[in-house]
# Entry
Amino acid sequence: MIPAELPAALREAISADLKPVRPLSPLWRRTLLVGAVAVAVLIAVVTGRSLRPDLATLSMVAGWGATLLELFVGTVLIGLSLRESVPGLALGQGAIAAAVGLGAVANVLTVAATWLGSSWVAPHGLPFTAGAVCSRAETIFGIPALVVTLILVARALPLRPHVVGLLAGFGAGLIGDGINHLLCPSSDLRHVLVWHTGVIVLLALLGWAAGLTWEYYEARRA
Amino acid sequence: MVGYQKGNMDDFTALYSELEQPLRRYLWTFVRNGSTVDDLLQTTFLQIHRARASYTPPRPLKPWVYAITRHVALMHLRSQRRRHEVTPEENLPEVPIPPAVELLGDRALARRMLMELPRPAQEVLILHHMLGLSFEEVGKVIGTSAGAAKVRSHRALKILREQMAENGASS
# Structure
């Protein structure tokens, strides 16, 4: 086989931008970085805000356990999104479904822990205000991990941005919910499902939609 | 690849020489037009350049490269569909076929039947049997498990075998 000659236009384009690059750090290290950010937010919340008044009456598992479970699973989902953002490491459909299922199970367990372990219900007329406070807090707690994830994703080349966005949004939502679990004492299932789980679903859908938009513009550029 | 990541142009040239033919073969799975394949090949190398930091040695290079190539081809097909463009198809006498397909019988018939297979089936056959990727690597390129890639390859070979038997009987 005759070795192919590099086309002049390609040579010129590559030569014009041939600065050395540092390869991405290993996946575990990038995931750990996001996990560290989530833990830092948790520490800031625990030290800077008053925790739910019924935390002492909740069992260790229903209180801190549920928080740590969501933080862990959220970080795992973000780790998978970081993996998916590297070409040649695409996740199979089964793995994506399993990851989403794992996140859903973690949230169901947290919802159940709140529902079974606490008795506070927002007074009549307050549900919307209480819900808005919770959903805002949850979003804010999830955003630092999401921002770090997006920076790390941008260094790679996501070939299926909608999958990356879905997993990253879901993961960030779980992290936010896990931290908020230590603040919100409501056991009203409607409140928890709409304003807590709702935020997780919303962040996952936003990530998915952002990924689709990215793909759309990339296809337009092609 | 490591030298190229450090900014060495000679290493990029060597990478191009090594990958040009296999990538061209793979692109033929998506596009049956010589000049479009040339364009897509250039775009692929520009994408490889853009994403060069995302390759982490000592991970195998092939899944990384073919995943980028596949993405470039799929983006092209998508944009073509959006613009309702039709690229004229050309005959592909010079494109080699996987040995596993060649074993099925008449070479010309095998090539024709291979090209008539649905693209996902063709893609797995080419990636595994011709370009030498393991099923695990194929899965990482196309976004399935290794098992699913293997099943797809077996099904494709079975369809090919059946079609060739049918065609051989009728001719």
Remarks:
- Chain B is about 70% helix and 0% strand.
- The mean pLDDT of chain B is 83.
- The CA atoms of residues 26 and 126 of chain B lie 7 Å apart.
